[in-house]
Amino acid sequence: MRFRDLHFRDRPLVLPNAWDFASGAALVQAGFPAIGTTSLGVAAAAGKPDATGGTREETLALARALSRLPVPVTVDVEGGFSDRAADVAGLVAELASLGIAGINLEDGRPDGTLAPLDHQTAVIAAVKRAAPGVFLNARTDTFWLGVPDREETLRRARAFAAAGADGVFVPGIVEDADIRAVLEAAGVPLNVLYLPGRTEYSRLARLGVHRVSTGSLLFRTALQATVAAALDVTGEDGSRPAPSYGDVQRLVGDR
What we know:
Shape: globular
Pfam family, one: PEP_mutase
GO molecular function, one term: lyase activity
CATH topology: TIM Barrel
Distance between the termini: 43 Å
Region (Disordered): 235-255
Number of helices: 10
Protein name: Isocitrate lyase/phosphoenolpyruvate mutase family protein
Radius of gyration: 18 Å
Strand content: 5-15%
Keywords: Lyase
CATH class: Alpha Beta
């Protein structure tokens, strides 16, 4: 089944996000029909902070490795690792040559702002010209940056779809009314980030969401389990919550 087709089944596609070949292979063995990557996991595993555009080579190396898997793979390329549309398009064309089925391309910038809309739509259009067969999941950080903005989200969702995006990703969106509004406005598959206790899978399915991603959750849970197992050897109590996204960023940044 083609990756695009997985977005149009009776229930949302659950897309778990891997950070290395072993985690990807384990998720395939568990039966998931497609996998993605997590930029936080890829960056932190390399000792680098996430969302700063510094992991282009690590992202490409992981894509080459994951392309060996027998399921579609979609790769988080952050903002494309360049401000030049031609560079981003070239990167995605290279990923397509490896057999990568999709990408996430975000409009959030390292300084906490959003890329200008005309710039982002130009990048999306350039990518689709260079790699038309790659499923481009256009991410907007209108909710993720901490000040939810429904109207700007709808404006960007419409513009991204018009520029050629195959899907729209709005991490941080939670409320039913917001989700319904984006579904209606975008006209392309909607991806929602799974947030424990806030975005229940059954509710997202009822709303008509097409794809549910785990983001960095699996990577952060793996860190939690690693520390717990090590402490268990010493006889200490290893029970503690999984580190947050910010915790991992600080862990890497402190080194």
